[in-house]
Amino acid sequence: MLPYAMDTDLSSQDRKDLDKFIKFFALKTVQVIVQARLGEKICTRSSSSPTGSDWFNLAIKDIPEVTHEAKKALAGQLPAVGRSMCVEISLKTSEGDSMELEIWCLEMNEKCDKEIKVSYTVYNRLSLLLKSLLAITRVTPAYRLSRKQGHEYVILYRIYFGEVQLSGLGEGFQTVRVGTVGTPVGTITLSCAYRINLAFMSTRQFERTPPIMGIIIDHFVDRPYPSSSPMHPCNYRAGEDNGAVYPSVEDSQEVCTTSFSTSPPSQPAALGVGSADMGYPVLFAGGLNAAHPHQLLGPGKEGGVPPVPSQPAHGTQADQERMCTPLDGVHYSAATPSSSEDTETVSNSSEGKSGSPHDLLETIFIRKVGAFVNKPINQVTMANLDIPFAMFAPKNVELEDNDPMVNPPDSPETESPLQGSLHSEGSSGSSTGNTHDDFVMIDFKPAFSKDDILPMDLGTFYREFQNPPQLSSLSIDIGAQSMAEDLDSLPEKLAVHEKNVKEFDAFVETLQ
Amino acid sequence: MVGPGWTRRRAPPGAAPTMNCRAEVLEVSVEGRQVEEAMLAVLHTVLLHRSTGKFHYKKEGTYSIGTVGTQDVDCDFIDFAYVRVSSEELDRALRKAVGEFKDALRSSGSDGMGQISLEFYQKKKSRWPFSDECIPWELWTIKVNVVNLANEQERQICREKVGEKLCEKIINIVEVMNRHEYLPKMPTQSEVDNVFDTSLKDVQPYLYKISYQITDSLGTSVTTTMRRLIKDTLAL
C-alpha cells in the first residue's frame, strides 16, 4: 500500500474501496482514450438492469491488450504524487516518421477532501469524469486525425507510469483539463496536453526516430519507472501483435460497486463491493477473426480460427454490442473472496479460466473477414459466434462434387458465353476436390431466405433455375419447320399475285 | 456565468430550498442547415453528464444503477463529432425539440436569432389545491445566430469554424460539470420521480424541460415554451 498522509480517518473498507476505484478508473481511462483513437465510431448499449460488472455504471468495453498494457505499466501501483499514469498518443507515417500528438495524464495531488464519501460520492464523480473524458477525447485535434488513419499513417499509443514527459509535443502545446475528483487521500486530476503545431505534416520536417514497434528500451534491470515502453497501434492489423496471450477477463474477484444506499452512512447496508463474487466480465464474440491468427491463441493451435467450444463458457449468445455480462442474468457464483486481490500480478496467473475465454473471438474492433473468402474453418461452430447471419456464413469447405454450382445440371448445348465461364472453372477441378486459386466457390446461402411456402429456399430455386432449357419456339427444329412451310407456299402466292398484276399497276399509277 | 452559492444538499424539512439556479450561456453562430446538429451536440453532451442508469430499488434504502451506453455521432454539415447516451427515446425527444426550434427560427424571417434552453429541475409536491412546484437547479441556454452564406467556399470554411467552436463549447460544458456543484440528493424510491425522469426504459436523466425563444427583427422575443410530455403534467 502506498503511504498516504493522515489516512487514519479512512476506514479500512473505505480505503480498500478507494484503491479499487482508482485502479479501475485508471484502467477505464486508458480504454476510453485508446478506443477513441482507433479510428472507428464507438457504440455501446445501455442496459437498464445492472450487471454488476460495468464499472462506474458506464458501458466501456475492455480491449484485453490495452488492459494488459495498462496493468503492465502500472505494475500493481496506483497514481500518486509524482507518479502519474500517462497515455501517449502519436502518429506514425508509412515512411516511419513519428510525432507525438497528445499526452493524457492521470495525476494525483496532495489536496485531500476528508469529508467526501468514498463509496458514493467519489464513485459517482469518477463516473462523471469518465463521461467527460468520453466527450473531450472527441474534441482534440488527434480525434479527427485518428478517424482518417490507415493509408498514410497510423495512430499509436503508449502507456507509462511516472513523470509526465511533455517535451515531445513541440512548442506551444495546449492543455485541456478533463476534470478532478477529490478523495480523502488526494485529488485525482485528468488532463490532456496536445500538440497544436501540426505544420510539419506539410513541410515534412520530421524527427527521425528509430522504429518503435516492438522494441523495449530497457536500460535498467529493475525499472520501477520505465522511461520508455513499446508503442502499440490504436488499430489492429495482422502480424503486428506479438502473439502474446492476453487474458481477456478481469480478475474474478474484482467486482464493481453495484448497490448504493440512500440511507445515512451509519447503515452501510448494501454495498456490493467484495460481498459477492460475480463472474468476471466476459467479452462476447463480435466478429470472425480468421485474418488475425495471432491474437487469441494458446500454444499448440494452428493458424486460422481456433475452435470455439461447443458450449460457450459464459452464457448464451449475447448481443454483439452487449458489453460485459457475467453469467446469465444475475447469477452469483459462490462467494470466495480471495486474498489474491491485493497480490495481483501482472501475469494474472491466478485466472483459472483463461483457457476458454481465449477461444471466444475478439470484439467488434477486429475487422471482419469478407463474406466470400474461403478459409478453412471446419472446426468453428458458427452458431456460437455473434456475427450477423452467422447461419448463412460458410460452414465448411464442401466437396465440390456435391456442389451444384460446380457441377451444374445438364444444360443444352448452346450455352451463353456467361454460362460457359461460370462452369468452366468448376468442372475442371471437381475431381480433386481442391479449391481453385482464382475462382472461389461458396455455398450460396442468401440472407433472408426461409422455407416457408415453397419447399425450397431462394438459393436452391436460383440454382435450379439458373440453367433453364431453351424455349421450344427458339429451337432450330421448329424454325426449320416453319421455313419449309414458307417455301412450299411461295409458288401459290406468286400465282395469285400474277393474276392481279393489272390491279397492282393501276395502284402504282395512282401513287405517281 | 454562475449563480451565487446555495444551500448544499438539503434544506431543513418543510422549507423551500433557498437555492439559486446555476445558469450557463453558450453562443454559436451557424448556418441554417447546421442548427440542428449544433444544438443536438450541445444538448446531448449536457445530458450525457446529467443522465444515470436506471435505478432499481431493493430493500429499504438501497438501490442499484443500470448501465449507460454511449455512441459516437458524426455531423454531416459540421466537421465535428460528439458522444451521446445510447438511448433512442432520449435522442428522439431532443430531435423533436430541436426540430421545432429550427422550424420556428426558419419561419421567423431572415434574421435568424433565437435561443434554446435546457433546464433541469426538481419537483416539490404541494398539497392540494396547489400544483407541484418545479424548482430549477441548472439552466443551459444556447444562443443561436443564423448566418447566410454566399458561396460554397464560405460554407466550407463555416463547416470547419463551427466545428472548432463546438469543440470549445464541449470543453466549456465539461468544465462546468467538473465543478461538482449542486446536484439533487439521491432520492428514495418514493421521491425518485421528483428528481429523475423515469419514463425512459434504458437511461434516467434528471428531470428536464426544453424551451426556446425566437427573437424577431424588432428585437422583441416571442416566447414559446414547449413542455416535454411528462406524465405528471397531467396532474391537476
UniProtKB/TrEMBL annotation, chain B:
Q: Which UniProt keywords apply?
A: Autophagy
Give the GO terms filed under biological process for this record. autophagosome assembly
Source organism, top-level taxon: Eukaryota
Q: Which InterPro entries match?
A: ATG101
Q: Where in the cell is it found?
A: Preautophagosomal structure
Gene Ontology MF terms: protein kinase binding
Q: What is its main location?
A: other
Q: Which GO terms describe its cellular component?
A: Atg1/ULK1 kinase complex; phagophore assembly site
Q: Does the keyword tRNA processing apply?
A: no
Family statement drawn from the similarity comment of this UniProt entry: Belongs to the ATG101 family.
PANTHER family reported for this sequence? AUTOPHAGY-RELATED PROTEIN 101 (PTHR13292)
Name of the protein? Autophagy-related protein 101
